[in-house]
Amino acid sequence: MAVNKGILIDYDWCTGCHTCEVACQMEHGLQVGQYGIKLAELGPWEYAQDKWQISYVPMPTDQCNLCASRVEKGKQPSCVQHCQAKCLSYGPLEELAKRLVDHPKQVLFALK
User: Fold this and answer.
1) Which of 34, 65, 45, 55 lies closest to 106 in space, CA to CA?
2) What's this model's pTM, rounded to 2 decimal places?
3) Other CB atoms within 10 A of residue 48 CB
4) Domain containing 72 — which CATH number?
5) What's residue 104's pLDDT?
6) CA distance 109 to 112
7) Which of 18, 57, 80, 84 is most open to solvent, judged by the fewest CB atoms within 10 Å of its CB?
């Protein structure tokens, strides 16, 4: 089966709210401590005077199926629909890959 859909994450805009995690857990009835998407936090630390590193990156896990039953009904995956910062996008890999040049703090996940 060819991988042709994915999630593009613009982590420059992720606020670390965990809504993607909660939406996924609720959608799939996952147990506490299990995730279809998990928020990773990098930082905070100061690396130069008044310059700080802090980033949040939602990362799909092996339990992510891109909300296949939702997508079959024409809906977005639950994490994408509920992302308050609108930093998650779902769609064809070729289209999402073209958006990677928009700015550097993005990551593209190709998922089955």
Assistant:
1) 55
2) 0.89
3) 7
4) 3.30.70.20
5) 86
6) 10
7) 84
